[in-house]
Sequence to fold (604 residues):
Amino acid sequence: MTELPLLSVEIVRRRIGERQTTATALAEACFGAIAAANPRLNGYLTLSQERARTQAERIDRLADQGLPLPPLAGVPVAVKDVLSTRGLRTTCGSRMLENYLPQYDATAVERLEAAGAVILGKVNCDEFAMGSSNENSAYGPVRNPWDTERVPGGSSGGSAAAVAAGLGVAALGSDTGGSIRQPAAFCGVVGLLPTYGRVSRFGLVAFGSSLDHVGPLARSAKDAAYLLAAIAGADPKDATSADVPVPDYVAELEQPIAGLKIGIPCEAFAAAGETGGLDAGVNAAVRGALDALERADCQLVEIRLPHTEYATATYYLIATAEASANLARYDGVRYGFRAPEAESLGAMYRQTRDHGFGAEVKRRILLGTYALSAGYYDAYYRRAQRVRARIAEDYRQAFQQVDVIAMPTTPTPAFRIGERIEDPLRMYLNDIYTVSADLAGVPAISLPCGLAGGLPVGVQFTGNYFAESLLLRLAHHYERLRGPIGPPPAFATPGGNGAQ
Amino acid sequence: MQVSREEVERIAALAHLDLTAEELARMQKDLSRIVEYVAQLERVNLEGVEPMAQVAAAGADPEAKLRADEARPGFTQEQALANAPQAAAGCFQVPRVLGGEDEA
Fold:
């Protein structure tokens, strides 16, 4: 395996600019690495060799002519299979969309390519992004590069595994309840949930529309900053995208962090006790990160987020209610699977949905339909929306006291494949630290802060609305304090190392 | 709280899902546990709290930025039908609607 795919955004661009390599050679090296590793990891579902070659040749022509290279020139990226790619199969990890060919590109995909990135292909995920382990994919689970008997997390498991294993420099994921940050934590990479509205969702297949976000996964905060800079900003095709200026995330990384106030929510360390416990190794790694930041002259402040203990219950009512509406579109009429030989329209709808959807998607559609149905709407859906307002208010008050909130990303490191899949509630509780940021709409980043039992642990920083620059900066400085983590031993290559 | 089998059948019908007997039993068990778990929200004091339907971060208010109501190019008929499981004469084709079991 070549070491090329473990490079950073800046090194890729520099090597292409200095003619030490070409975007085409780099893409080919990535396809070679994917062919070697995919049988073990099951990360990629569809490769886009032709599209990658066309884009790489475009970048190489610029380099040939000595023209300025765009910021992501030649950077090979993986795209989660819930983001639409024109003419490139987009399955959402579902049988329902096994042969679906979108007629347009998601805005985030279009912007990455405009910034010079080379799309390698589409990566595996839980069906319609519903899951925390990637075991809900109709195409089989992705395996964690650190231990292939374990889950990579979900739902952006393919994105995280691909980045960790060097099958691409970075990836796009989506996060509705933790689906970027949780797999990033499990696979030892950086995952950023941007502010709601920061990145256009046009072309993201909808799950929970008031909660869905698109964001980057990368091997360093700096690479994540490059990706976010490329995809952020208002989009006329997404009315929920925010018309807020996009700062220079990369330049701002070097501003100092001394004096920052970091809030430590006591609930984050206590609440886990009720629900199966915060793993001792995770606790130690996260505490270690906080100590390092304190030594770097950040101020740790104990804060309270009193309603976050209700976040999981709130999330699973709101997200499923929205999903039940969004997934009504899969009826076998306009796209996707259709049950053959149904005798009536109604039978066709029911048979199509019964065969096309997997168990977790059905469970969530049923729960959401229940929460929205006559007689239960006020008791469940409306009540959950009101608790959501309380959770958002907790964050608003906290950010009057502190600049950033720090807590673990997950209560445990990656668990074993099959360990939790039979117990949906236990699986949902894996999201206790991630769902509240989606509910409030605030940005959050997960990055590795050590190992527990040989598995990566993620620390999560949450910021106020549009504070991505601050989160990336804190993450960038912390990476220097921490030193390199990864790549996973089985994917280590001479001189190849994620921390650039 | 126990979600009854009849209730699961009722919501499955609302969601256009045909569930096997085995699936029904499984979903009844899972939904009962989840509904029991979310009952914790009854403990939250919600006096004077309005429901939050959308994140109101600066600039993310869809009402604030409606575009001009002007015709613009969209999908061609060919593009719209490109993924149709069955199409004919420029239309999506579906099984018969009238006279079937669903008419009642």
